[in-house]
Amino acid sequence: MSDVILSVQDLTAEVDGNPILKGFNLEIKAGEIHAIMGPNGSGKSTFSKILAGHPAYTVTGGEIVFLGQNLLELEPDDRAKSGVFLAFQYPLEIPGVSNVDFLRVSYNAKRKHEGLEELDAFDFDEVVQSKVTLLKMDPSFLSRSVNEGFSGGEKKRNEILQMALLEPRLGILDEIDSGLDIDALKVVAGSVNALKKPENATLIITHYQRLLNYILPDVIHVMADGRILMSGDKDLALELEAKGYDWVLEGEAVGA
Fold first, then answer.
1. pTM of the entire predicted model
2. Which residues form the ABC transporter domain (predicted)?
3. pLDDT tens, position by position, 101-142
4. CA atoms of 91 and 102, how far apart (whole Å)
5. Number of structural domains, the chain?
6. Across-strand partners of 58?
7. Rounded Cα gap, residues 73 and 190, in angstroms
8. Main-chain phi, psi angles of 98, to 5 degrees
9. For 20-35, how does the pLDDT look when each residue is reduced to its tens digit (9 = 90+)?
10. Within a 13 Å sphere around the CA of 84, how many CA atoms are in the beta-carbon half?
11. CATH of the domain at 168
């Protein structure tokens, strides 16, 4: 069986008729953590939303293969049930819906998709409490409405709790470090590291090298103008922090 979780070939996409992705290529294998960095407007968040099936984005060419199947043929909910998880940059508040109810419905939808018996509230409580303990979270999170009144750090940790419970084959973290102070960043990063497994993969989208001090990626990609221009190891992130992106963009221009 192939260990490739995600394969993206020559992907092009647009929003409102404006091209955003312009020949995007990426391969992620099981057990790997990849990070995509790049200047604003490069298409990083667009790519994450396309993976999740956001209807505002139109794929105009190329392919996305997830665990051997054509991801573009799946509706957003089927992508989620099949193991694609997107942690939002700006998580939405859902007043009146408790975290524990939201999590139980999500968890049981995935179990049903896998042909497994759904858990009742009592059995589910044991499962979710184990994840809360793993992530060192306050159990009171479960009784609160989804993200309502949460700080930025609490919202991001709540996204990671969802990922811990659903155990996706591909976790996509869209600027999970955005708006976090250093203490919250360490907690979120520690939770992501705790969830790493040999059979799963993680894609991190970030502007800043500081997150990669705490989550060590196997591969770092530099993205600009809708495609990946350069890939490397953790040292590439340090170089970007020191030099910015201009040297990569200038090198691409010379190569062109």
1. 0.90
2. 6-250
3. 999 999 999 999 999 999 999 999 999 999 888 878 889 889
4. 14
5. 1
6. 14
7. 34
8. -70, 150
9. 999 999 999 999 999 9
10. 24
11. 3.40.50.300
